[in-house]
Description:
Number of helices: 5
CATH topology: Rossmann fold
Low-confidence stretches: none
Shape: globular
Number of strands: 11
Radius of gyration: 17 Å
Number of domains: 1
Distance between the termini: 31 Å
CATH superfamily: Nucleoside phosphorylase domain
Oligomer: single chain
CATH class: Alpha Beta
CATH architecture: 3-Layer(aba) Sandwich
Bound molecules: zinc ion
Amino acid sequence: MVDAPRFRIGVIGGTGMYEVQEGSNHEGGGQSRTIGGKEVAFLPRHGIGHYLPPHMILYKQNIEKLAGMGVERIISTTAVGSLRADYKPGDFVITDQFINMTHGRDDTFFHEKVVHVSTAFPYCEEMRGIAVDSARKLGYDFHERGTVVVVNGPRFSTNAESKVFRGMGADTINMTQYPEVALAKEKAMCYLNISIVTDYDSGVEGKKEGPVSYEEVEKTFKRSLDKLEILLSEIIKKTDDRRKCGCSGSLDSAVKV
Ligand SMILES: [Zn+2]
């Protein structure tokens, strides 16, 4: 028996956002929550209580789980370090590009079939537009675009590495957006990322802050959680089931027979 899909929208909670909220229900390993008046699938990326480090997260299982719950559009939340003075702690970033510097992670569903999915524009542009409008309406300090460099972790970067990443054109740094975003693409899902800047990585020129500590990251992120919930609510309210974007066709020209 195949159940009708219950959830169209899934939220992947990042650092600091893994508590099971009051009124939420477990649903096949994920949870359901009502956000913005809609029932959405909720998955804490690191597991409840934050027990999985970034390189051990079950990225494929997480995406499979959401797909199995009927999710077509994913909103992911992450904490990021800033590589630029103007991306300040507490700012929100609507990420639009990534640079993958991770290694050893299983980053494809296609090991037995030749499939080259395009990741030229990996984040759903329609959902990014909704997020930008929502953040603007709420009067938040936010950045419409951001290139994230995703590193393997769990250690933070050296000062030399940070300099290299800045030279590559990265604005923010994180350990979990890849391969999550690429795997979502392989499932023809929409993927939106909302990042909260928590720190200045190993130090940005002209800024006294840094080097980063985990305590600092979590403290800043928690302060921003209430604002994040409001932003999510606003985005989900405006997100409908029908896709005006091209994400559902991600695989159409990707399969080599
Ligand atoms: Zn889309």
